[in-house]
Amino acid sequence: SKRIVIKIGTSSLMYANGEINLAGIDELAFVLSDLRNQDKEVILVSSGAVGVGMNHLNLTTRPTTIPKQQAVAAVGQAALMNIYNQRFATYGKQTAQLLLTRDIVEYPTSRENVINTLEQLLTMGIIPIINENDTVAVDELDHQTKFGDNDQLSAIVAELIHADLLIMLSDIDGFYSNNPLSDPNATLYPHISKITETLLSQATGKGSAYGTGGMTSKLKAATRVLKSHSAMVLANGQQPKIIFDILAGKEIGTLFK
Ligand code: ADP
């Protein structure tokens, strides 16, 4: 694959104790920078704004109101980009920030603008870092909807730029027959070619305090990817170097294709 979209969840960017996983972020920057050196085009869709914002503002519990979460996300987004910029600079790469909403699919002019920006950044060798614009859309903040919008957003982006592969990094090794947190006998699906009702019924909510979408949202993203005849790998983001193995064709996580 030449064009790769990587989506990373908050659980891979933050430790459970509320601190920032600097080693993980650094490894991610290293891997993506090296892929650029291998002439691959990479786009990062990163969650984590609220988590990093809470860390910066010394909050131990997630704000309960959406406006407070939006404020924390606005602080955290800038702080997170600071860390990314710094780490990517270490490996000689520049990044760019794109804050998008789902409605880029509904408005053709917006969609064109997003495509043009991304294509240009890729041509310039810059690594685009995308997040939902939490100020104007709260799909990812609103846990009631359990929408996990960055999961959808990453699939939409992959479709827009005709990515060869979407790599979704989560806090779990792949898609299982049941949530492994509650069912130790759950087994991993190495390959899924169609999202069935059975699979949907095997997906439940988020795993960590930071998680947003849960597996349902990842299956929804996979549905979109399969529809556009592309591929998605769901794998554990604990060690971002796993991306090298995925691209080397090793059987890792769950391949949706
Ligand atoms: P992220 O923050 O990476 O987006 P989420 O917390 O939203 O991750 O989703 C991952 C979690 O989904 C896992 O930790 C797991 O507890 C839960 N989960 C529910 N059903 C399944 C399943 N069938 N297979 C794997 N994980 C599942």
What's the gist of this structure?
It contains nine helices and eight strands. By secondary structure, it is an alpha/beta fold.
Summarize the structure in words.
It is a single chain. Strand 3 (95-100), helix 5 and strand 4 form a beta-alpha-beta unit. The radius of gyration is 17 Å and the shape is globular. The protein has helices spanning 10-13, 22-37, 49-56, 66-90, 108-123, 149-160, 197-202, 214-227, 242-247, and strands at residues 3-8, 41-46, 95-100, 127-132, 165-170, 191-192, 232-236, 254-256. Helix 2 (22-37) crosses helix 4 (66-90) and helix 3 (49-56) packs across helix 4. It has 257 residues and is of the alpha/beta class. It binds adenosine-5'-diphosphate (ADP).
